[in-house]
Specification:
Layout lengths: L1 H13 L8 H13 L13 H14 L9 H11 L6 H11 L10 H4 L34 H6 L1 E2 L11 E5 L6 H5 L3 H4 L7 E5 L9 H19 L3 E6 L1 H12 L7 E7 L23 H4 L6 H8 L9 E5 L26 E5 H4 L18 H11 L13 H5 L9 H20 L16
Parallel strand pairs: 2-3, 2-4, 4-5, 5-6, 6-7
Antiparallel strand pairs: 1-3
Helix pairs in contact: 1-2, 1-3, 3-17, 5-17, 10-11
């Protein structure tokens, strides 16, 4: 039974991309034969999505790019083709991007390769905040379960940071990424050139694949730390799961709400995503990283997140998302996973790009990460950070002109490729991450 299930799982995963991973079939046959008669002695993880991932990554390692994009327009065209709300999108996107020269030639060892330098989790930040923020900054904050040394070391402060001469911005990455990998080719390049934003970013240990509440502790600490060493309020810009982390931080570390002026949420998944079922098709039999299990559509964590108030804004918030997101779905209308309520009356603008940009706009590339290099996001960030409350499209001088740009001013072909590059890396990291669960992790004890 176990052998049959494993083979079926591998073949099912391989069939998701017909014509591209035909070699998986042969590998499955050999793997199944090798397991026959010894399954009782083999760790349960062999009957697992991890094995599927290993096989697929081995196949991807054999795929060589057939082209190198020569223009941003060409990259946009490739990315637009792999976008869309399809169950196989995660796998198809990774394969297509690698084939088209928009990913590393090998996806093996990416966790080690992208864990140093601007992606390091071991940064030395010696400045002390103006007031005590650990073990808590406020009596209502829940206790941290992580040491202050580890929390502080995850904050990467670039050489461009002015320590309060400009308004600080904390950049929070998404699942299976690091801050440098996620933001250096886009926001971390553009924002230091402005007088309204001064970015730092987080490299959360475990690539944001550990439990979401654990990841949120790094966000809560970083907000209070950067505010404390600059004596300024901060803004937060987050991608994907980084938004669950940020809202969770606002919920259980209320001290953070008092020092955040603006929050821009890019491709958030406040309802989770139905597309992640391809990575966790059946918990209990198959496993996946903890944070992925908690982002399944209406997972127990998502239900708790919404029950305790995470689906409504705590600070002025601008959300930006695409109806054709290839990672988070649904992403359209009031039922969009990214749609944030404003029950506390702090001010919210929900921006579904397909509804606010003209139909043929180049900005409507529409994948999970493409907003990071798009001009509309930059315009919204500027408006939000230079006014009280969330962004307001009516204040932007020529919004349609921003929608008409293929990429934001100041970004080149290398930057657009670099932003897209993170997608297959994240895909590989999800499968290579060694800590996996077969059941969704329990909620922290402080959750009522």
């Amino acid at each position: 039974m176990r052998t049959t299930t494993l083979a079926a799982t591998l073949l099912g995963a391989a069939s998701a991309v017909p014509g591209l991973l035909g070699g998986v079939t042969g590998l499955v046959g050999g793997l199944t034969g090798a397991l026959q008669g010894t399954l009782d002695k083999i760790d349960d993880q062999l009957n697992d999505v991890g094995v599927v991932g290993a096989v697929l990554l081995a196949e991807l390692g054999q795929i060589k790019p057939t082209a190198t994009p020569s223009s941003i327009k060409e990259v946009a065209s490739i990315v637009k083709k792999v976008g869309g709300a399809k169950p196989t999108a995660l796998l198809q996107s990774a394969v297509e991007l690698v084939l088209n020269g928009l990913g590393p030639t090998s996806l093996e060892g990416v966790i080690q390769q992208y864990s140093a330098g601007s992606n390091s989790e071991n940064n030395v930040n010696t400045r002390e905040p103006a007031k005590v923020i650990f073990p808590s900054a406020d009596a209502d904050d829940v206790p941290y379960s992580i040491t202050e040394e580890k929390l502080r070391a995850a904050i990467y402060i670039p050489d461009t940071f002015t320590y309060g001469k400009k308004p600080p911005v904390v950049l929070v990455p998404g699942t299976a990424t690091k801050g440098g990998l996620c933001y250096e080719p886009n926001l971390a390049k553009l924002l230091p050139q402005e007088d309204y934003a001064d970015p730092v970013w987080l490299n959360i240990p475990g690539w944001l694949l550990e439990e979401v509440p654990w990841n949120a502790e790094f966000v809560a600490y970083a907000i209070n730390y950067i505010s404390g060493i600059t004596s300024q309020n901060v803004s937060v810009i987050a991608l994907s799961q980084g938004n669950l982390d940020t809202q969770w931080a606002f919920t259980y570390w209320p001290s953070t709400r008092h020092v955040v002026s603006d929050y821009i949420a890019v491709s958030p998944d406040y309802h989770g995503s139905v597309l992640l079922n391809v990575l966790c098709p059946k918990l209990g039999l198959l496993s996946c990283p903890p944070a992925v299990s908690q982002q399944l559509y209406n997972a127990k964590f998502i239900e708790a997140f919404r029950r305790v108030g995470g689906a409504s804004a705590y600070v002025p918030t601008t959300t930006v998302y695409s109806a054709t997101d290839d990672v988070v779905q649904p992403q359209s209308g009031a039922n969009a996973s990214a749609y944030l309520q404003d029950e506390r009356g702090v001010g919210v603008l929900n921006v579904e790009l397909q509804k606010v940009c003209p139909l043929a706009s180049p900005a409507l590339v529409g994948t999970h990460e493409s907003s990071l290099w798009g001009a509309p996001l930059q315009a919204l960030i500027k408006d939000a950070l230079t006014h009280d409350g969330p962004a307001d499209i009516s204040r932007i001088p020529d919004w349609n002109a921003e929608c008409s740009k293929i990429a934001a001013d100041g970004l080149n072909l290398e930057d657009v490729i670099g932003t897209t590059f993170a997608v297959p890396v994240a895909f590989a990291a999800m499968f290579l991450y060694p800590k996996r669960v077969t059941t969704e992790p329990a909620l922290p004890s402080y959750v009522q």
